[in-house]
Amino acid sequence: MTGIQAMVRQLTASYIHLLPEPPKDKRKTTNLKPEVIATVRRMRSVGASTAEIVKETGVSKTSVFRLTKSKNKESRT
User: Fold this and answer.
1) How is 42-71 classified by DSSP, letter by letter?
2) pLDDT in tens, 31-74
3) Among 25, 35, 29, which residue's Cα sits nearest to residue 66?
4) Which of 17, 40, 55, 65 has the fewest CB atoms in 10 Å of its CB?
5) How many Cβ atoms from other residues are within 10 Å of residue 60's Cβ?
6) What dihedral do alpha carbons 45, 50, 52, 58 form, nearest 10°?
């Protein structure tokens, strides 16, 4: 049995680079600086429109929505 296990380990080690990369969790990664994130949230909290935030900070519209979306449903009116 151990001879077979050793062969399997050797084969796995030699072909490991052919296996596909595990999928990355895209939701947690961000390339925005903390200052930019804070600026976007501050602008939204004082009532700036999405277009104004995009023009001022250079952040994409999608990122603005993602950064400023409501965390709990009850805060919406």
Assistant:
1) HHHHTT--HHHHHHHH---HHHHHHHHS-S
2) 888 899 899 999 988 999 999 999 999 989 998 888 888 766 55
3) 29
4) 17
5) 11
6) 100
